[in-house]
């Protein structure tokens, strides 16, 4: 499995398609995705700040997933934040997610944060179960465009 930094020009269509599909899986539609160009600009800016945190996942020369990670300030503490864990449908539930999570936790450790957070749709039962199995705990419910759960895990 290879984790390679997103190249905006080369990977634009892939990252947009993956992100939109993540909305469909989480919320039933990609309606809340917003403007494609704004998303691409956000990713370009994050790649400049955290190149090893914005990666496509390749396996046997096929792009099978995407990870978006960054470091944010939350309640006056720097934390890791997962904006996106994405695997193509045919690769879900087969152990690849464990490798993505391992990559993310190593990224956060390398950036010297002791905790990371992510948001998940409470209706995405498979994702919630996966995160709980890996030690993430629900901190609180949040409402932006959708109701989500903020989950967190402390790193050793």
From TrEMBL:
Keyword flag Signal: no
A single GO molecular-function term is: acyltransferase activity, transferring groups other than amino-acyl groups
Reading the lineage from the top rank, the first entry is Bacteria
- Where's the N-acetyltransferase domain? 1-156
Q: Keyword set for this entry?
A: Acyltransferase, Transferase
Q: Does the keyword Cytoplasm apply?
A: no
InterPro entries, per database record? Acyl_CoA_acyltransferase, GNAT_dom, YpeA/RimI_acetyltransf
Task: Tell me the PROSITE patterns matching this sequence.
Answer: GNAT
Under the heading Gene3D superfamilies, the entry gives: 3.40.630.30
> Which PANTHER family does this entry report, sorted A to Z?
ACETYLTRANSFERASE
This protein is called N-acetyltransferase domain-containing protein
Q: Which organism is it from?
A: Paenibacillus nasutitermitis
């Amino acid at each position: 499995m290879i984790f390679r930094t997103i190249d905006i020009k080369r990977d634009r269509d892939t990252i947009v398609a993956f992100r939109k599909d993540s909305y469909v899986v989480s919320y039933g539609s990609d309606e809340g995705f917003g403007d494609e160009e704004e998303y691409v600009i956000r990713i370009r800016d994050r790649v400049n700040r955290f190149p090893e945190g914005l990666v496509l996942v390749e396996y046997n020369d096929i792009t099978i997933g995407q990870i978006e990670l960054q470091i944010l300030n939350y309640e006056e503490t720097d934390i890791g934040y997962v904006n996106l864990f994405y695997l193509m449908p045919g690769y879900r539930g087969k152990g690849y997610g464990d490798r993505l999570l391992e990559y993310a936790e190593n990224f956060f450790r390398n950036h010297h944060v002791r905790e990371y957070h992510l948001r998940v749709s409470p209706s995405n039962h498979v994702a919630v179960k996966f995160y709980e199995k890996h030690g993430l705990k629900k901190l609180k419910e949040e409402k932006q465009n959708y109701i989500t759960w903020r989950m967190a895990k402390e790193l050793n």
